[in-house]
Amino acid sequence: MRPQRNWGVLLGAAFLMATSAVGPGFLTQTTVFTQSLGASFGFVILTSILMDIGVQLNIWRVIAVSEMRAPDIANRVLPGLGSFISILILLGGLAFNIGNVGGAGLGLEVLTGLPVTWCAALAAALALAVFLVREAGPVMDRFAQLMGLVMILAIIYVAVTTHPPVAEAALRTVLPAKIDYTAIITLVGGTVGGYITFSGGHRLLDAGIKGPAALPEVSRSAIMGVSVASLIRVLLFLATLGVVSQGLAIEAGNPTASVFQLAAGTVGYKLFGVVMFAAAITSIIGSAYTSISFLKTMQPGIAAHENRWIIGFIVLSTLLFVTIGKPVSVLLWAGALNGFILPITLGTLLVAAYRPSVIGRYRHPLWLTVFGVLVVGIMTLMSGKVLLDQLAGLWK
C-alpha cells in the first residue's frame, strides 16, 4: 500500500472513530453535564481523554498485531465470549443508532423546515447511499473527514461568540469544585465505549493495515481519533460554559440547540442544524459499519454481503426511531451502557495481549498494560457505584 494511501486510511480510521463518537448523544451529554457541573466539567473531560487514549492504544494495537477482529480475539480467550460481546455491542450500537437517526432528522428539520420524520428518513437514505457503492471504505473515510471538519469549524464559531471564562475552565480542569462519576463513565462510554473504540481498529484491519510492522501507524491513527473527538468536546464545553456563565436558561428539551441559539441567534440555530446533522449522519455510518463487523464472527457468511447487512441495520434503526422516538434520556442511557461494556471488552483484549496463540511473539508494552488495567478497575468501580446508586433510587 502506498504511503499516501496509508495516510488517507489512517486519517479516515481516526475520523471514523471520532465521528462515530460525536453523535447526538455526545452533543447532548456535553451540554447537559456542562450545565450541571459548570467549569468543573473540564476535569471530567481531561480524565476521560487520558482514559480514552489508554483504551484506544491497547485495543487497536492488539487488533492490529493479532490480525483479527475483536470478537474473534475474545473467542480465543474464552470460547463463546466473542459472541457474548458481539451481542452487547449490537445492543449498544442499536441504541445509539436510534438516537443517531433522530439527531440527523432533527438537524435537517432545522435546516429545511420539513417534518423531523421525513428528515430522518432522508438522512438514513444518504447514509445508505455510502454503502451502495462497491468500494464503500474510501467513500466512508472521506465523508467522515469532511463532516468532522464541518463540525469543528461551526463549533469554533459558536464558542468564540459566547466568550467563555477560559481561565476558570483551566483552573477547574485540574482543581474541580465537584466530581461526578456518572459523567466520567458516560463520557468514556460515549467516546470509546461499546462499538466506538472498535470502529477505527476494524477499519484499519479491513484496509490491510495490520501486523507488528504497522503498529506505529496504528498508534498514530488511534491518538488522532481521540484528539479529534476531544477537540470537538472541548469546544462544545467552552461554548456551553460561555452561555451558562452568563446566567442564560438552557432549554431542557433540546439543550444543544438552545446553547447555539442563545450564543448566536438565528445563525447559531442554523449552525446547530449543521452540526447535529454532520454528527448524526457520520455516527449512523460508523455505528452500522462497526456493529455489523461484529456479526461476521457469529455468522461468517455475512462478510460476503456486508453492505446489505449494514443497510438493513440502518433501516431497522430508522424504523425504531419512527416508532419510539429519541428522548434525551435514551441518549444519556446509551452512553452509560457503553461505559458498562468497556471494562469487559478492554479486559478481554488485555488478556489476549499475553496469549501467544493470539499475538504470536509480540510483546505488549508494560505501561500500556498497567494503564489498561487501571482503566478497567476504575470503570468497573465507577460503573458499580452508579448501578448501586440507581438501585438505591428505585427503593426510595
What does this structure look like?
The structure is a single chain. The protein is an all-alpha fold and 396 residues long. The chain has a single domain (3-395), classed as Up-down Bundle (Amino acid/polyamine transporter I), CATH 1.20.1740.10. 83% of the residues lie in helices and 0% in strands. It has helices at 3-21, 24-37, 41-66, 70-77, 81-112, 116-132, 136-162, 166-174, 181-192, 196-206, 215-245, 255-298, 306-324, 328-352, 356-359, 366-395. The chain is globular. The model has no long low-confidence stretch (mean pLDDT 85). This is Membrane protein. Its main location: membrane. It is a multi-pass membrane protein. It holds the Pfam family Nramp.
**Rg (C-alpha, Å):** 20 Å
CATH domain fold name: Amino acid/polyamine transporter I
The CATH homologous superfamily name equals Amino acid/polyamine transporter I
Q: Based on the structure, what is the oligomeric state of the protein chains?
A: single chain
